[in-house]
Amino acid sequence: MASYSTADIRNIALVGHQSSGKTSLADAILHVTGVTNRLGDVNTQSSHLDFTDEAKTRACSIDSALCHVTVKGKQINVIDTPGAPDFAGPAIAALAGVETAVCVVSATAGIEVNTRRMMERAKSYGIGRILVVNKIDSNLDLAGLIAGLQELFGQECQPMNLPTNKGGGVINCFAHSDGSADVGSVADTHTALIERIVEADEALMEEYLEKGEIDPARLSGVISKAIAAGSFVPILFTNARGEVGVQELLDIVADYCPSPAEGFRRALVEGDKSTPIEPDPAGRFIGQVFKIFADPRSNIKYTICRVHSGTLRSDGSIHIGDERKPQRPGQLYKLQGAEHPEIGEAIAGDIVAMAKLDTRIGDVLHVGDGGTIEMPKFPHPMFALAIMPKSRGDADKVSGALAKFTEEDPCFLADRDPVTSELVIHGIGDLHLRTILSRMQHHFKLEVETKPPKIPYRETITGSARDVEYTHKKQSGGAGQFGRVIIHVEPNERGKGYEFVDEIFGGSIDQSFRPSVDKGVQSQLKEGVVAGYPVVDVIVRLADGKTHPVDSKDIAFQIAGREAFKKAFMMCKPVLLEPIVRLEVTVPNDKVGDIQGDLASRRGRPEGQEMLPGGLSVISARVPLSEMSDYHSRISSITGGQGSYSMELSHYEQVPANVQQQIVEAAKKAREEARAAH
Fold first, then answer.
1. Domains of the chain with CATH codes
2. DSSP state at residue 394
3. SS3 assignment, position 552
4. Of all residues in the chain, what percent carry a pLDDT higher than 70?
5. What is the arithmetic mean of pLDDT over 376-395?
6. Among residues 523, 525, 543, 544, which one has the least CA distance to residue 534?
């Protein structure tokens, strides 16, 4: 039996920007609670959470790591997540395992791009949030930082404690209405805090408005409700390396953060039915996978699961997703950094690891009926590299290694482009993909060459053609081939794809051969007509044709359908479509003009600009993907390494005529060179 109940569990994820001190805070949490006998340090490669060789070499987290501590009888599960925007996948996935996101902000660097993104993602997903201002021993304008946090994230953000003694300690402004602090007034902070908390309870708010005061002890039960609802976001202060404010943070997490019974309630979706999951240890088992990793020492695959309902035991039997055949979870583990101590069972609300299960991130593990549980929204990986093994014999090994990485990282994809035949890997940015390739070389001894991939253009039409005929006849002794088709071709709505409509009345083409026409057309859709790119958004109507009683066969009507479509396509004012990305660039204010000028040179269309506290601006724009191949190095050059960006696929739109001509000519030249080579 577990030594704690669901109500005693607190699940938190440390999120925020790179170098804000998340891992240092996690190491301090382990040390002040006595779990470790030394304070881990990222800089000396002795961190208990950044334990992989890759993380040590880069001196930053590249994956999430788990640990747990006990404070005031509460079991606190901590997920330390990467802060670099390139490694957003594990950080976002961690939100699926917790009730509270603890966003760590560097007091020296202030509000950075991932501060904002992770706060927004946690809010949109529905979990509670806490802001922790770290490194308070080295900041001169904490008041300005507090004001900036409130300006950006709202007045629901209120300090719950304040630094004292020049960052050497903190004072609890909830428990104290007077005292001295390094920044602000304890009395004013206490009043603002009480006013914010009582808003979560109508009866208490009325009493407070009538009497002007209320005993803070009566508000304790309201705070977790307010944090869970998002109406209260505590601001706390720490210096992780000096272990200042760390115990106070843990006390607040234990006392006031929502338990799985109080926090964001996930729902199991089965068809059109959505049912909130009751976190009852006596209920049927339902859990969700939010992390997968291979132990660097043993290479064993571990599945990390958040238990939402029921109790999981090693001798039980569970289903994975919609698989009918059950599996035994085997031994259960409670991760503690690099260590995997065994446990007997995992109850509703807890986080547990299992070995050697065939799972993917987001999978629902269950007993009884299955379904899905919504995951947080992941950015679409738009940065890509085409790769080729340096050794020809390594092709299958490379594919196998990439498959493992796609299982572990929800923002990493690898596929073989059906048009170009290139093996292409997709990630959030250059650092993301270079780290994947470095891990592949280190763990699997596989090296690859890289180059920019070909842009995934699409072909479509802007006009229509009717009664386009093609007859395929072949007679060379023995059985011949015959198929005659007449088709109409017209544009489909953007995004609707391909439609085939059989409009033949009567038997001009035998019923058995009509699907063959469709099959022939679809084969040409994949190959393209104008420049060798897939065709999208067209409607083909089979209007008429002719069948020969002896020579007509499937292949004949496939060829006739294909050739008729090629002929019609060129009559329908064909155009190329190019992928447009939504670009978000974060840069110092004094570099905004340079960035805007550079985007204009890339056919970019600006869509807005937002000023952030700390002298930063966020520029939003839509830009053709084809113009972004060198953007990583360009933005680094313009901003001296201080800029960052993210991009997601927005839509496809028509390529300008002059650009289309260049693409078509390049495709024609490539085909001629390929023919000459053969």
1. 6-256 (3.40.50.300), 267-366 (2.40.30.10), 383-454 (3.30.70.870), 459-572 (3.30.230.10), 576-658 (3.30.70.240)
2. G
3. coil
4. 98
5. 89
6. 525
Mapping DSSP to helix (H, G, I), strand (E, B) and coil, where does residue 130 land? strand
Show the tokens assigned to 512: 């058995």
**What value does the mean pLDDT of the chain take?**
92
Segment 368-378 shows an average pLDDT of 93
- Residue type for position 594: D
- Residue 500's nearest CA partner among 535, 471, 550, 452 is 535
Spatial distance between the Cα atoms of 675 and 162, rounded to a whole number of angstroms: 73
Q: How far is CA 178 from CA 167, 214, 238, 507, in A?
A: 18, 15, 20, 93
Q: What is the pLDDT of residues 308-325, one digit of tens each?
A: 999 999 988 999 998 888
Question: pTM of the prediction?
Answer: 0.81
533 vs 527: CA distance, rounded Å: 6
Contact 650, 604 (CB under 8 A): no
For residues 285 and 206, the model is more confident at 285
Q: Which pLDDT score, from 0 to 100, does residue 24 have?
A: 96
At residue 261, what are phi and psi to the nearest 5 degrees?
-75, -20
Query: Measured between alpha carbons, how far is residue 292 from residues 60, 298, 405 in Å?
Result: 19, 14, 9
Under the banding of pLDDT at 50, 70 and 90, the label for residue 678 is low
Q: How far apart are CA 570 and CA 575, in angstroms?
A: 10
Tell me the C-alpha distance between 7 and 287, whole Å: 17
Secondary structure string (H, E, C) spanning 89-103: HHHHHHHHHCCEEEE
How far CA 661 is from CA of 457, 656, 658, in Å, comes to 13, 9, 5
Q: What is the distance between the alpha carbons of residues 324 and 351, in angstroms, rounded to a whole number?
A: 24
Q: Which residues have a Cβ under 8 Å from the Cβ of 615 and sit 6 or more positions away?
A: 588, 589
Structure confidence by residue, pLDDT tens digits, 526-551: 989 999 899 999 999 999 999 998 88
Output the six-digit token pair for 230: 């998002």
Q: What 3-state class would DSSP assign to 88?
A: helix
Rounded to whole angstroms, how far apart are CA atoms 51 and 338? 6
Helix and strand tally (H, E) in the chain?
16, 33
pLDDT at 201: 87
Residue 452: which residues within 8 A CB-CB, separation 6 or more?
Answer: 384, 385, 386, 629
Residue 379: name the closest of 227, 213, 583, 75 by CA.
583
- Res. 441 pLDDT band, cuts 50 70 90: very high
pLDDT in tens, 213-234: 888 888 888 999 999 999 999 9
CA distance 258 to 264: 9
Nearest-CA neighbor of 341 among 349, 356, 353?
353
Question: Between the CA of residue 309 and those of 128, 268, 352, 603, what are the distances in Å?
Answer: 20, 11, 13, 51
| Token pair 């009497």: residue | 211
Q: Are 652 and 577 in contact (CB under 8 A)?
A: yes
Q: What is the pLDDT of residue 52?
A: 81
> What's the per-residue H, E or C state across 294-315?
ECCCCCCEEEEEEEEECEEECC
Whether the CB-CB separation of 61 and 81 falls below 8 Å is answered with yes
What are the pLDDT digits (tens) for 481-517?
999 999 999 999 998 999 999 999 888 999 999 999 9
pLDDT above 90: residue 421: no
Please give the Cα distance from 437 to 425 (Å, whole number).
10
Beta-strand ranges (E) seen in 246-335 are 267-270, 273-276, 286-294, 301-309, 311-313, 319-320, 332-333
Tokens 């009751």 sit on residue: 278
Query: What is the predicted pLDDT for the residue at 505?
Result: 84
